[in-house]
Amino acid sequence: MRADDHTTALPPSPTLRERRRAAATREIVDAAESHIAEHGSAALSLRAVARSLGMTVQALYHYFLSRDALVTAVIARAYDRLADAVQNAVDTLPADSDTPRMVAAAEGYRAWAIAHPELFQLLYGTPLRNYAAPEGGPTTLAMRRLGDVFTRELFVGFTPSQLAAADVPGLSPALRAHLDGLAPDTVGGLPAAATALLLSAWGHLHGLVVLEVFGHLPFMGDHQAEVFRLSMRNLLVDIRARVPRTAP
Questions:
Q1: Residue of 5, 10, 3, 60 whose CA lies nearest to 35
Q2: What digits encode the pLDDT tens for the residues 65-115?
Q3: Whole-number Å distance between alpha carbons of 148 and 152
Q4: According to CATH, what is the number of the domain 68-241?
Q5: Phi, psi at 78, each rounded to 5°
Q6: Segment 198-229, tens digit of pLDDT
Q7: Where in the chain is the domain with CATH 1.10.357.10?
Q8: C-alpha 98 chain-centroid distance
Q9: What is the CATH architecture of 14-65?
């Protein structure tokens, strides 16, 4: 047997045609993002994007068969970039920082939303008329990636038994059964009590960001970042206090 018999074969390099197509696709998605930033997501159309690139609509159809296909690509990339920003906020946290990783993740989320309000509106604002993301498609996968970061940082160090025994008053048997019946890839296979805590935390975090990005907290002036950090710290303390230190 030759020494290289077990060597893993490298995947073939993209052809020139494939590289050109990938570059053109990126340019089209970039143009769509720019159009959204200037005119809002509701004004997005293949004709407008094609015009901005000096292309015909017919040429654009070679890359995206419909407006919905282009919207899906823009949303998926936005979610990926948001997830990158959240993960980077955690990864770059100094080792001697007293900021919990979950709080750093939340602040990364807030910072990206403030820097990209139009894309944030596309992800979480008024749904585009007649648009429906493909089930199980790239937008769903990108959303799960973002959710996985928050789930990990919120419940790091706890076992499934501890999470299942979390103190969640008012969780009815019917709701508990519904949460336990969710598909594992929906909320990372968390037990019902932990899923309820995750949804509560997400609503609190996301709600504060929405209020700020959509301009509902001007009375806080320059203190919005401090209020957000304080809220996230308190939220994290409350949730972790609800999980028993040892499994029952």
A1: 60
A2: 999 999 999 999 999 999 999 999 999 999 999 999 999 999 999 999 999
A3: 6
A4: 1.10.357.10
A5: -65, -45
A6: 999 999 999 999 999 999 999 999 999 999 99
A7: 68-241
A8: 25
A9: Orthogonal Bundle (1.10)
